[in-house]
Amino acid sequence: VTVLSGEIHLATRATMKLGAGRWLHQLVASGIAHRAPPRVWARILGALAQFGESPLKACPIRIPCIPGQKSRYIAERNYLVLERRSDIWRARWALEESGITPPLIL
Known about the structure:
The protein is mainly β. 10% of the residues lie in helices and 46% in strands. The protein is built from 1 helix and 9 strands. It has one helix spanning 39-49, and strands at 2-6, 12-19, 22-29, 53-56, 59-62, 78-85, 88-95, 99-100, 104-105. The chain is globular and about 40 Å long.
């Protein structure tokens, strides 16, 4: 299962392990009309994300880095591109300064 969301003005993603080899993916892209927030905001959120969260005890949530990026939150204007080839879905973020990310296989 994959959830698409936005409106935090940052690019990021999260995963929740559902068990039996299944994952819930949340992919976040910002509106390209808004300017990017200060990079320090992304660093603060990234530091807090290290702690993780588990609203359901058996299903921990983690915020891994977007493919090709060193940070969990990217403070650039961006949009998300979803591609389907056969039965394989891929997600890529188009980042204003860094360009297109490598694909994330869903």
